[in-house]
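Reviewers of the previous submission asked for a worked example of the structure-prediction workflow described in the proposal, so we include one complete record here. The input consisted solely of the amino acid sequence. No template or homolog information was supplied to the procedure at any stage.
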Amino acid sequence: MTELHKFIVSAKAATYVGDGESIESCRKGSHDLSFADGNYRYLDSYFGGANFIGEEVVYENEIPVWGMNYYGQILNPQKITSAQTGMMIKASLSQMYAEGRFLGGWEYAQDDLTYHDTSDGNLECFNGLEWIEKDGIKVYELVYHGGLII
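From that input alone, the workflow returned the following structure tokens.
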């Protein structure tokens, strides 16, 4: 489990948060990011922009062993843009990943934005919520869940 956890953190840090290169879409209209190291391969495939849905899967020796689904949306487009949201998410998650973890219990503030992430469970089975507040008002949120695939 420790090896899988380390790989997931590395993969997340290298793809969306790390501005990793997109790969050819595996489904019509999807945006896909991939990362590989040793026997592990990670694929993040999502649809949309301001409102989006996606799935992350980790393969070990080309067999799916872990996954996560997520749905995010901008709640108040008058107060925050997609670009501002993305920059705040990347800044926040890069700090969390630098600590070697990806599940909740995280808060990060920058200028007038505060990012929050909470979750229940662990690598094997979890659910969580991330959100951004601007001046104390929730302007973005994302729900996620996932765990081991057996």
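The chain has one domain: 2-148. We consider this example representative of the routine output the project will generate in years two and three.
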